[in-house]
Design a protein that fits this description.
The protein has about 130 residues and is mainly beta. The chain has 2 domains: about 55 residues; about 70 residues, Nuclear Transport Factor 2, Chain: A, CATH 3.10.450.360. It has 2 helices and 8 strands, in the order αββββαββββ. Strands 1-2-3-4-5-6-7-8 form an 8-stranded antiparallel beta sheet, covered by helices on one side. Strand 7 and strand 8 form a beta hairpin. The protein is elongated.
Length: about 130
């Protein structure tokens, strides 16, 4: 058929979907994406939007949930207020769950249309990364 591009899409391995179902048995509206280096599930759970990444061997790599700025832990709010980005406008905020019971917080900030950063804080409010975004 003219006009239709056929995207290559690997089938999501059963070991990946099985691993996901064990970790998130209450997930709803699950959609999968092939990210080439991993498989990503987007889903809803307990009224929140999540994404979870898995290796092709079914190993859980990370999960992320969008939260409101007000939901940041006090230590992270404090870390942000003491950083050089304290006066920047806060956009999307996420809580990131990593193996080993590690929780980190992503805060997208902008100073202007051209000056934007993705900040990454540890759960105790330490600024770990400040990557420039386009």
């Amino acid at each position: 058929m003219a006009g239709h591009a056929n995207a290559q899409f690997r089938r999501i391995p059963g070991i990946v979907t099985d691993s996901f179902k064990v970790k998130y048995p209450n997930a709803q509206s699950v959609t999968w994406e092939d990210k080439l280096t991993n498989f990503q599930a987007s889903f809803n759970m307990d009224g929140d939007k999540y994404t979870a990444k898995y290796s092709s061997k079914g190993e859980w790599l990370s999960s992320q949930k969008k939260i409101k700025k007000e939901s940041l832990p006090e230590a992270v709010k404090d870390g942000l207020s003491k950083s050089k980005y304290a006066t920047w406008e806060v956009g999307t905020v996420t809580v990131n769950f990593l193996p080993g019971n590690v929780t980190q917080y992503g805060v997208f900030v902008s100073k202007s249309d051209l000056t934007r950063k993705n900040l990454l804080f540890s759960s105790d409010g330490q600024l770990l990364k400040d990557n420039t975004t386009l």
